[in-house]
Each structure stands twice: as C-alpha cells, then as structure tokens.
Amino acid sequence: MKRIAANITSLMVVVLLLATAGYAQYVQRLILKVDVPFEFNVGKKTFPAGEYLVVRIAPYTLALRDSKGRFLTSVGTGTVLSLTARSTPKLKFELQDGRYVLREVWPGGSTAGYQLSSPKRLNAFAQNHPAGTEVQALSSSGKQ
Known about the structure:
Elements: H1 2-25, E1 29-36, E2 40-42, E3 45-47, E4 50-58, E5 61-66, E6 71-86, E7 90-96, E8 99-106, E9 110-116, H2 120-128, E10 133-143
Parallel strand pairs: 2-8
Antiparallel strand pairs: 1-4, 1-10, 2-3, 4-5, 5-6, 6-9, 7-8, 7-10, 8-9
C-alpha cells in the first residue's frame, strides 16, 4: 500500500513539473502600450482614461493591464486583415450609445490585427458605422 501511494505521489510530481515547464515555454507578448484619452469599454467592463498595456496571453486571447502591469480583463479575439501593413500600432474604438468600445488592436508593421469578440447587435452597428476612433500606441512588440 505504501508503495502504491509513493508511486502515485511521484507521478503527480512529474505531471506538475511537466505542466509548469510547458507553461513557462509560452511567453506573454506585449502588443502595445497606449494612453487612452477617454473612458472606454472592453466587453461589459468600463475603464477610465489612462495608460494601458495590451498583452497577448494565448493565441486568440488578449489581456488588458494597467500601467503597472496588473491584470484588468481578458477578451477573446479573431483575426482581422488589411491589405497594407500598419506603420504604427493602434487601438480602434467605435462609438456606441455615447460610449467608446474597443473593437480592434493593430500591432505595428503587420497586416494582421486582432478583432475583439462582440455581440451581434454591435456587429450590426459596426457595419452601419464603419468609421472609428483610433489611438496610437506609445510602444509595441516587446516581451513582458
């Protein structure tokens, strides 16, 4: 009985070590650092004007952090493409019911950006009002 318990304990330690090593291999990447001059929404959350970091935490997931790097929220994304590369990184906001809503994140020097997931009602709004407000980033594409 002691031998079975020891084997199970050893197996659990090995699994935890492998999981930790795998997690350590994934490096979170800073997409951009931006100073947003107005209050805005990401999903159902509202954030005041200020400096923020946008970090890729998984292939289709971005996290919003405050200027000190503290986690605020995460959001699922899709890919949005452009025919020309953006020279500077930007956030694209759309005005909805008097509020700015974050819609797209564009890293600098890339033809691919991140489109934030949104309800159908907001997608219909975006189709009827394609013009958005863009905020240029302070910096981009570093590792955190």
